[in-house]
Amino acid sequence: MEGRRRSPCHGRRRRRRRAAEEVAALGRKVRELRRLVPGAAAVPADRLLLRATDYIVRLRARFELLRALSDLVAVMTNHGGGHDDAVNEASS
Predict the structure, then answer these.
(1) What total of structural domains would you count in the chain?
(2) Which residues constitute the domain of residue 15?
(3) Between these two residues, 11 and 25, which has the higher pLDDT value?
(4) In this structure, what DSSP letter does residue 30 have?
(5) Over the stretch 34-62, which tens digit does the pLDDT of each residue have?
(6) What's the CA gap between 76 and 35, in Å, rounded?
(7) pTM, whole model, 2 decimals?
């Protein structure tokens, strides 16, 4: 028993629909990226990824700085932190 034959256009329609869905998904991702990256609303799409990568690098540097400062504060707090302890030790 032979199966039902599909029209030759069937595969093309499915590919077009999939391509349209991918374009729509890309558009949503670009809009979200424009929302997340400061100043990206006025940037052409071809420069958007460069702006986003620059922003990520700056965020990472800021994060590392804040982590280092946090570690420093923790060390200072755990060791009594500072000038008063040195003065107390010197006067003893």
Answers:
(1) 1
(2) 9-91
(3) 25
(4) H
(5) 999 999 998 998 899 999 999 999 999 99
(6) 39
(7) 0.60
